[in-house]
Design goal:
The protein has a single domain, classed as 3-Layer(aba) Sandwich (Rossmann fold), CATH 3.40.50. Helices cover 36% and strands 16% of the residues. It has 8 helices and 8 strands; from the N terminus they run H-E-H-E-H-H-E-H-E-E-E-H-E-H-E-H. The structure holds 1-O-pyrophosphono-5-O-phosphono-alpha-D-ribofuranose. It comes from Pseudonocardia petroleophila.
């Protein structure tokens, strides 16, 4: 198992380097990076970006305990950057790209296989329940984000899978987390109570969707919520985001742990 995981890790790293190395870069944590979303804080000594700081002041422990975006999307560049193309085209309602979907799926698969122990250590436990962030436009299991969730490596754990139900508030254009964007049936609520829930999404922009999911899950009694997503969306239109985009130039390396510090906990 150890050697096969080591072999897989090296193969996954080489494959993703060749396929997305020129467009994705790993998210980074540390001075000047938001502890929650890995976006820029603007000042090295400040630990939360403005958006996450406001959400924490309003919702506190109702929010996700841990957010793990793997890479940065360089959003709104002109011409469009390949990273934006990948996260858009994989779920295009008009012309979805299977190639884009398979690449994003493999990023999730490789990261959860290689860094599952790192994520579990940072969260405080392995996840026992998994769900997706429902889409405003395509409900439930019809959305390509389901394909991402299906690729999460389970590490031999018996993971329960549940669905959140969107309410009419998902149509709000106000990108602000709310407790009533999603709901859970009593049966599903009983399955998340006291459990660690892993929430899968493609992108994290304002956190309105995934943090709303966390609020619903915590209200239902979930013990912990971890959000795992392919990418933190950065906007080229914003000065601090632009600076971060321009400063992070290393190609995506699947062996770099997306959370926690020190050496990766995966057996080598
Ligand atoms: O962090 P946020 O500001 O919430 O933005 C990210 C969310 O927005 C998108 O969903 P949306 O339902 O808008 O679009 P989709 O139907 O294309 O997935 C995306 O899939 C995330 O769920």
């Amino acid at each position: 198992m150890t050697s096969s995981l080591a072999e897989f890790s090296e193969q996954a790293r080489a494959y993703l380097f060749s396929q997305v190395g020129d467009c994705f870069t790993n998210t980074s944590r540390g001075p000047g990076r938001c502890l929650v979303c890995t976006g820029p804080t603007g000042i090295a000594e400040v630990q939360l970006c403005g958006q996450c700081s406001r959400q924490r002041a309003e919702f506190g422990v109702g929010l996700a305990d841990l957010v793990v975006p793997l890479a940065y999307v360089r959003g709104w560049m002109t011409p469009q950057h390949q990273s934006e193309h990948l996260v858009r085209r994989y779920k295009s309602p008009v012309q979805p790209s299977r190639w884009c979907a398979e690449l994003l799926q493999f990023m999730i698969h490789a990261a959860s296989a290689i860094h599952g122990p790192c994520i579990a250590a940072a969260a405080g436990s392995w996840w026992q329940v998994m769900t997706i962030v429902p889409s405003a436009t395509r409900l439930g299991a019809d959305h390509p984000v389901v394909g991402l969730a299906q690729q999460v490596f389970e590490h031999g754990n018996n993971v329960d899978r549940v669905l959140l139900t969107p309410t009419e508030h998902i149509a709000s254009t106000d990108r602000h987390p709310r407790r009533d964007m999603f709901t859970l049936s009593p049966e599903v609520a009983a399955r998340v109570r006291g459990r660690h829930v892993l929430v899968i999404d493609d992108t994290y922009v304002s956190g309105s969707r995934s943090q709303s999911a966390a609020l619903t899950l915590k209200t239902a009694g979930a013990q912990r919520v971890t959000v795992l997503c392919v990418a933190r969306w950065l906007s080229y239109r914003w000065d601090d985001h632009w600076r971060l985009i321009e400063s992070v130039l290393a190609p995506y390396d699947a062996l770099i742990r997306p959370v926690g510090s020190g050496p990766c906990l995966a057996p080598r």
